Amino acid sequence: xxxxxxxxxxxxxxxxxxxxxxxxxxxxxxxxxxxxxxxxxxxxxxxxxxxxxxxxxxxxxxxxxxxxxxxxxxxxxxxxxxxxxxxxxxxxxxxxxxxxxxxxxxxxxxxxxxxxxxxxxxxxxxxxxxxxxxxxxxx
Length: 139
Hints:
Blueprint: H1 3-38, E1 44-51, H2 53-63, E2 70-74, H3 78-83, E3 97-104, E4 109-121, H4 123-131, E5 135-138
Parallel strand pairs: 1-4
Antiparallel strand pairs: 2-3, 2-5, 3-4
């Protein structure tokens, strides 16, 4: 191996380290910002690029196996927070966030909550939210 090969390999290694460091900084900043959104609100959180039903179904099945609770997705706004008795400190200004809840209709109480941040919704999910005032009941 001659000197030119070593310089090229060394340069590639430096670029790779720089890219990894930049990705770490971006992801840790995003994660930190997200944690502030849900501080003292949800036990669980999820961050995805494109949100679809396949991201949501396993959580509902795991946490509501007998189906006695209502599976609900909401886009947080003041009306929806009030309707489901959710904490007022959920950020209603984040268009890229939904709240996934298990709701006891008899007690009118949220039993479990997960906040999800995403880059984009599938077009079908966005349409359903738009047609239902930001609330989707999952059967």
